[in-house]
Amino acid sequence: MSNLDRRPAARDLGGLQQTSAGPALDLLPAKEVLLGESTRVRRLLPTLGRRMVGAWAFVDHYGPDDIAASSGMQVAPHPHTGLQTVSWLLDGAVHHRDSLGSDVTFHPGELALMTAGHGIAHSEQSPVSHPRFLHGAQLWVALPDADRDVAPHFEHHDTLPSFSSDGLRTTVLMGTFAGATSPGRAYTPLVGADLDLTAGADVEVPLEPGFEYALLASSGSVSVEEASLERGAMLYLGTGRRSLRLRAADASRLLLLGGEPFEERLVMWWNFVGRSGEEIAEYAERWNAGDERFGAVVGYEGERLAAPPLPPVPLMSRGRVR
């Protein structure tokens, strides 16, 4: 999924200086953004006060939207570098094409994982004949320096590890959670897990004290320790927790994201992750020039997205937390 902001801010991410030294319960504000032709998303990361959670560097939550009378999601071909995109659906279907030749339609409960590495381009669309509702999350994971130029690749996993207990069904998207490991390849210690709670559930979920975590309410509302979390909002949980108590009066879906705090400093602008403003400027120039670094998306009918103009001043660091 693309960042379609025509005036994107450059963000310096990573580093341990401002990582929480212990548990937290910080509500992260969302910003509504228009994605493509008609899809509105709630951008939860990066946001005021928080740039990353582990290696998770970008979180968009969209829907549930009634798209029966529309074309639904329509995101033209665009590039990425230095990151992984993690696509997760709760309702609907998305047709993914990329410059590797991948041509896949994925559905709820399936993992679509694209590793951009050195450079890739892709498009995302609702199929012509699509379900009535569209609801999901798009997430980016920053790649560490040792792997940021890895050859791009795409994974589609239609079966993921899941287990149920005490009114909670857990599906592991990325990393390892409660002894279950996702087949999706991760390059840093992290976790992404979908938590599906029945009405009246009161559960304790295990956490790694060395990880920092955040919790997104995809639907419903829950009590998280002593805090309330409503649909479409995200709560930063900090570090140092071995477990987390969740209580749901009504049926609710949560997305748990966590990982070891990301030590490296990096710059994110538009759809690129790099290590300096000069690198980002080079990526944008090469994409707009049609450079072979990113390849071409075959099968998409329409123009690809152009990188927006760079800011009139050098891309500057803003830090992990503002």
From TrEMBL:
It holds the Pfam family Pirin_C. Its cofactor is Fe cation. Residues 40-141 form the Pirin N-terminal domain. One of its GO terms (molecular function) is metal ion binding. Binds 1 Fe cation per subunit. InterPro entries: Pirin, Pirin_C_dom, Pirin_N_dom, RmlC-like_jellyroll, RmlC_Cupin_sf. It comes from the Bacteria. Fe cation binds at residues 78, 80, 122, 124. Residues 193-290 form the Pirin C-terminal domain. Keywords: Iron, Metal-binding. Belongs to the pirin family. This is Pirin family protein.
